[in-house]
Sequence to fold (354 residues):
Amino acid sequence: MSKLGTIKGPGIFLAQFAGDAAPFNSLKDIAKWAHGHGYKGIQIPTWDGRLFDLERAATSKTYCDEIKGICAEQNVAITELSTHLQGQLVAVHPAYDQGFDGFAVPAVRNNPKARQEWAVNQMMLAAKASRHLGLEAHVTFSGALAWPYLYPWPPRPPGLVEAAFDELARRWIPIFNAFDEAGCNVGFELHPGEDLHDGITFEMFLERAKNHPRCGINYDPSHFLLQQLDYLQFIDLYHERIFAFHVKDAEFNPSGRMGVYSGFQNWVERAGRFRSLGDGQVDFNGIFSRLTQYGYSGWAVLEWECALKHPEAGAAEGAPFIASHLIPVTEHSFDDFAGGQGDAAANRRMLGIG
Fold:
């Protein structure tokens, strides 16, 4: 039999739930809330000081032990740390400077060079924090330099995309090296708006990153469904590089008026929109089967985003949904009862070999 993997879960990404009101404004209370909904793991957004102090975690193993202790008291594990906002700022096209400034601390806003240096340092801190917490995977965004030129009109000048990916890899290789020292993999969420948004762009980047062993994918099928990409075959192609898994649903309902781009409409009116688990079109039976088949044994983490449903309802429904899709792997084949012991001579006789 091929090596199977039992996926861990359910986990939940806390970014969409953190807030100023209890129980969402402290790690202890939000962990207790997550456990109360049936979650066994939490993915922590490192930019949210109400829940986590990244710099302190990078410099103090004692602080990380305290964080792990808080989670253990609430019967949840830390699945991964997230640096989606900081990772985005490792590479920002000038067209998006103003929009992305809000992701950074005030001291580096209106200063793209300082902001980029801050973002890289944040990633280095995340590597150290992951090591202190004993984590094996980390989730983030790649950032983007080429994204404004995705649809080539006016035609892109030769070499533009290649130069963008060369530079993107140059910026990320030292970060990968830091995570390698920490014994932790980096999983990029392949996402529209990022230069790494599908399999082809990941390949382009991976080649330039010299096939770094820590460079991988945070698999999120919702973004692939909205691009009309075959998200099951994606697992066949890239399973060796899938280091994390966001369980998020989506639906795509094109009409005579709009398709993939959805005409600048808001999330409710778009042809493609994110939905709570079970309300969309993603084939999670197929996904969990494929990941189990290829030996993925990381966490299945709910990332809740929905244009319609209340987040509390989405969280409450998410844990049992994920739990129902987890596959305890078998230790033997279903037809072993009908088999016999291996015998080389008998095999040769069955094949008519003298």
User: Anything to note?
Assistant: The two ends are 29 Å apart (CA to CA). The first helix runs from residue 27 to 36. The mean pLDDT is 95.
